[in-house]
Amino acid sequence: MLTRACFADIIYKFGEERQSRRIAKAIVLARTEGAIRTTTRLAEIVRRVASAGWRGKGIDPATRTFQALRIHVNDELSQLDRGLAAAERLLAPGGRLVVISFHSLEDRRVKSFLRLRQGLGPGRSRHALPALPSERNPSFEVLTRKPIRPSASEIASNPKARSARLRIAVRTAAPAWEEGIPS
Q: Which of these, 177, 178, 105, 172, lies nearest to 143 by C-alpha position?
């Protein structure tokens, strides 16, 4: 059984929830009264402590908590990392990698992977000494410097599309890189 600190860390890290400690405390307290057997019950617990100003409109306060638990249980970020590395190995030169992400954690991973594989490396301070040129040739050429976001009309017809981000890159002829993906 997860402790309050574990719950809080998961909710903060994967849900990017600022009230993670309060939510975790409420979940652990509710578990002392009995098992939480339904998502409705969990959502009620979260809403009680994280619903400041929420009146049933907009994004439900429990969304980030459910996202965090789903990402943790399914190991989604590691799956994404493995998928990106596999695409790099499997795509033929000229093949396109098209990735749609639905939250900032995924998008940040995709952006970092493509930046690194384009030969740009992690963001550096403008005051730092120049980096040594990479010994590797770029394995991708990024076509979308910024992610493509859904239009207002697309969001109106499909509200779930509001958080989607699309990034596109083309595989170069350079060999796939060997090491893993930075977190």
A: 172
Query: Residue 65 in contact with residue 48, Cβ under 8 Å?
Result: no
**Are 137 and 156 within one domain?**
yes
Beta strand spans in the chain (E): 96-101, 140-142, 165-171
SS3 130: coil
As a whole number of angstroms, the longest Cα–Cα distance in the chain is 60
CA distance 76 to 107: 12
What CATH code is carried by the domain that includes residue 147? 3.40.50.150
On whether both 40 and 84 belong to a single domain, the answer is no
Q: Is the pTM of this model over 0.90?
A: no
| CA 16 from centre of chain | 10
Q: Which amino acid is at 100?
A: I
Compute how many other C-beta atoms are within 10 angstroms of the C-beta atom of residue 98.
12
Pairwise CA distance, residues 80 & 124, whole Å? 24
Look up the domain containing 103 and give its range: 76-171
| Residues 67 and 80 both lie in one domain | no
Q: What is the pLDDT of residues 161-181, one digit of tens each?
A: 999 999 999 999 999 987 655
How many independent structural domains does the chain possess?
Answer: 2
CB 172 within 8 A of CB 139: yes
